Amino acid sequence: xxxxxxxxxxxxxxxDQKNNxxxxxxxxxxxxxxxxxxxGSGAFGKVLEVVDHKSSDGKKKKYAxxxxxxx
Length: 71
Known about the structure:
It is a single chain. By secondary structure, the protein is mainly beta. 14% of the residues lie in helices and 38% in strands. It has a four-stranded antiparallel β-sheet, with no helix packed on it. It is flat and about 40 Å long.
């Protein structure tokens, strides 16, 4: 039962055709930032709206996070 689950996880594609990161809503980055939505993309990468789950004051703050394209 576990083997098919592991195989499906390995087949997930986190990169697009140009080998750049493909963000997924609800995914976490560095166990800290949760992707809320994609704000835009351009020549140098993608900008994401994220929620910081480890802010110093305990509140979940929203930030814009830019993911640069792989060179």
